[in-house]
């Protein structure tokens, strides 16, 4: 009896999981088919580009600089035992460009923008603003969702690139000004071990994560129910789903790309 | 006879709860039809089903002769452009100021140039007794009555053939309610727009309606004009107008 109930629960969860995948796919098809047909809402796209690409810079920059600094300190603690300090610049660079840059940028954007997208669209949904948009003959997928997903997918790689630079700079500051490394050697060691693929793979990851964050943010907002409480729950679900998917896809992409 | 709205045997359930159980009604050009009924009887659901914002289970709804649930989305949005809606809470876009709210349908629906859309929006604001100074304010900076008036200006900005009013005077003081009622009458009588309103405000109903329907248990159980409403001995009508808690009407 207990086993049957357990299996029933598993079955229900599996069906609910498949239903969600179907629902998200349908949501995406509707969004993309609406978004690629003219007219295009350039003003909305520009607004979102500013929100994602410009206003996220401070939070991304701060995360990157502290991560780069901490990374350099941790590496020093380990590497100095084997007198392998010269490896620190390349480890910081590889960690930032391949892994920490894209993942941390995406997690910060999920917290900042994914949550705000869900809250904004969710509030519009429960206060009938999306209905009002439809009755004013405007496709809400085209006006609200498509510009966010498009700009998120295109601009997150840009944020990742900035994050890489600031993260590496953080490592440089700690090593040169605190641990007394030679500045020229540090820069040389960083760039001598850098390949274009290190940067490109991070940007690819950034683009995928940007897409995931915006899809989750918009989807959860669009299907919010039951007033303020529902919007709050949708926001939490959006950030949790985005974060888990970022970490899961990071693992998958690392397998595929390297 | 040509009707601007034709509803036939409309049914809608949410789970086991049957909200609309075979609604049929017709509204002709220039007519003001009011649906009255208690809270939670499905009045707003009826309007949303007519506007295809909620998918109904069965029946048919035609706006200007077109069954909007069965036409492509592009054509459906075009048909909706001829329908103005005044939502219960106003449903103004929080992120846009008053002028952008009012001109929204003109700019994004009709693709009119912004300057021209703003000019029309200012005229519509004037029509609802609001001057240019409010045009740069955001909805959160307006009083409830002003929000309703801006929402009404937005509803009439695209020169619709039909306007839907979802509880237009709920939550307003009697004087503001009176102003809103006058504006509704101005829209229907002077501009010749058909109107479908839902309300449980008896004073508003008597002022704005040509014909009234009473919705109860998912059905329109009584229909008549203003005169018939006053003289009706239907127990449901008598109870609804008097507001007596004892009678055939039960609130769930």
Strand content of chain B: 25-35%
State the low-pLDDT regions of chain A, or none: none
Which architecture name of the domain at 1-74 and 192-252 in chain B does CATH use?
3-Layer(aba) Sandwich
Give the C-level CATH assignment of the domain at 1-74 and 192-252 in chain B: Alpha Beta
Rg estimate of chain A, integer Å: 22 Å
Tell me the count of domains of chain A: 1
Oligomeric status: heterodimer
What's the main sheet of chain B like?
6 strands, mixed
Number of strands of chain A: 0
Defining key terms:
heterodimer, A: 258 residues, mainly alpha, 9 helices, 86% helix, B: 252 residues, alpha/beta, Rossmann fold, six-stranded mixed β-sheet, three-stranded antiparallel β-sheet, 9 strands
List the helices and strands and how they pair.
The complex is a heterodimer of chains A (258) and B (252).
Chain A: H1 2-35, H2 42-54, H3 57-79, H4 88-126, H5 129-135, H6 140-177, H7 183-192, H8 196-222, H9 227-257
Chain B: E1 3-14, E2 17-28, E3 32-36, H1 43-50, E4 58-63, H2 73-80, E5 83-86, H3 98-109, H4 114-127, H5 144-157, E6 162-166, H6 174-190, E7 194-199, H7 202-208, E8 211-216, E9 219-225, H8 226-231, H9 235-242
Parallel strand pairs in B: 3-7, 3-8, 5-6, 6-7
Antiparallel strand pairs in B: 1-2, 1-4, 8-9
Helix pairs in contact in B: 3-4, 3-5, 4-5, 5-6
Care to describe what's here?
The complex is a heterodimer of chains A (258) and B (252). Chain A has 258 residues and is mainly alpha-helical. Chain A has one domain (47-257). Chain A is 86% helix and 0% strand. In chain A, helix 1 (2-35) packs across helix 6. Chain A starts with a helix and ends with a helix. The relative contact order of chain A is 0.16. The mean pLDDT of chain A is 91. Chain B is built from 9 helices and 9 strands. In chain B, strand 6, helix 6 and strand 7 (194-199) form a beta-alpha-beta unit. Chain B has helices at residues 43-50, 73-80, 98-109, 114-127, 144-157, 174-190, 202-208, 226-231, 235-242, and strands at 3-14, 17-28, 32-36, 58-63, 83-86, 162-166, 194-199, 211-216, 219-225. Chain B has a domain at 1-74 and 192-252: P-loop containing nucleotide triphosphate hydrolases (Rossmann fold, 3-Layer(aba) Sandwich). Chain B is α/β, with parallel strands linked by helices. Chain B is 37% helix and 25% strand. In chain B, the strands form 2 sheets. Chain B has a 6-stranded mixed β-sheet, with helices on both faces. In chain B, strands 2-1-4 form a 3-stranded antiparallel β-sheet, covered by helices on one side. At the A-B interface, helix 4 and helix 5 of A face helix 2, strand 5 and helix 3 of B.
